[in-house]
Amino acid sequence: MSSSRQIPPGFLFVGLADALVAGALLAGALLAATSGSAAAQTPKAPAWSGIGRAATPAEIKAWDIDVRPDFKGLPPGRGTVAKGQDVWEAKCASCHGVFGESNQVFTPIVGGTTKKDIASGRTAALANDSQPQRTTMMKLSSVSTLWDYINRAMPWNAPKTLTVEEVYAVTGYILNLAEIVPDDFTLSHENIAEVQKKLPNRDGKTTRHGLWLPGGKPDIKAVACMSNCTTDAKATAVKVASALPDYARDAHGNLAEQSRSIGAMRGQTTVAAMASAAQGNAKPSEFAGVKELASKATCLACHGLERKVVGPGFSEIAAKYKSHDKAENYLAGKIRGGGQGVWGPVPMPPSAGINEAEATLLARWILKGTPD
């Protein structure tokens, strides 16, 4: 007769219930531990969270003005060569000459191209060195580059101020000076691709070299020099050969004041008087604020305090007119109305935005001889 252990009534139920409760408690504990660990591992929001905002479509549009070689991004518009000549003489000739040939301020824009170049698409003078100085039109391979640069950066003293029509017109005028388009031509977004086919150096950029070729390699060689190296801490430090000594850094006036209002600011304060003023040592003057006025009138874009930049330095002007009885009125008139021929062939445009009293103050400041 076999015997078996008898399970008391209700024991199975109670034991199962206890197991379920225990399992629930264990699961809860594990869940809590896991949740706590996950919470501890959740990264905190960065310190800059919530700062700033997304740019609006209008803000993006204001900066998205580039024009590609396929002319994508080019705004619709048109401008005549005749209109371009008017704009050029008023806003461009002061630096580039009436016919784009001047190298007094920048390298010439026009010159060095021929009708044969227009037919071939390659500027011969770039290869045979027959042109003593390379011009813009000799190197230009895309009209879009010319249009885009004028639109972004010109005129020098007031970039981004030309209208779309003026940019088309000035671009057309330059192309006319290079004998690419006729005198009665109207450049527009509709025909600019056809003009592209006439650029003298349109095929000047080639991809038939270096990395562009299948299996190609860079077309440069950079071999590191690993001989005669020194680890001596007392060795003579390397110096930049082109560095100017302190006494010569202000030879062309204060470079910081000769930077444009738009674009990268590369100029450093190079006038000792400016450093003294920064330390609070400047004395009160009747000309307080006159430098801000000179910047407003865009004088400092072309004139240094001591030396020539585009036009003569202020000290040079003072020396020239120191014995003239009516020099103050004469210079004030030149400041407001512009002029040409006194200091060379490059014309000075009139200063916009200043009145007669401000022009007189500027003239008096210049004639002082040592502007501070």
Keywords:
two-stranded antiparallel sheet; 15 helices
Kindly provide the radius of gyration, computed on alpha-carbon positions and rounded to a whole number of angstroms: 36 Å
DSSP, total strands: 2
First-to-last CA distance: 126 Å
For this structure, the quaternary state is single chain
The proportion of residues in beta strands is under 5%
Order of helices and strands: HHEHHHHHHHEHHHHHH
**What is the overall shape?**
globular
- Portion in helices: 25-40%
How many strands, which pairing sense, and closed or not: the largest β-sheet? 2 strands, antiparallel
Mean pLDDT comes to: 77
Question: Class by helix and strand content?
Answer: mainly alpha
Number of distinct helices: 15
Provide the spatial order of strands within the biggest beta sheet: 1-2
Uncertain stretches of 5 or more adjacent residues: 1-17, 273-283
Task: Report on the architecture of this protein.
- This protein is an all-alpha fold and about 375 residues long.
- It has helices at about 10-40, 55-65, 80-90, 95, 115-120, 125-130, 135-140, 145-155, 165-175, 190-195, 270-280, 290-295, 315-320, 325-335, 355-365; strands at about 80, 185-190.
- It has a two-stranded antiparallel sheet.
- The longest helix is centred in the first third of the chain and has 31 residues, at about 10-40.
- It starts with 10 loop residues before the first helix and ends in a 5-residue tail after the last helix.
- The model is unreliable at about 1-15 and about 275-285 (pLDDT under 50).
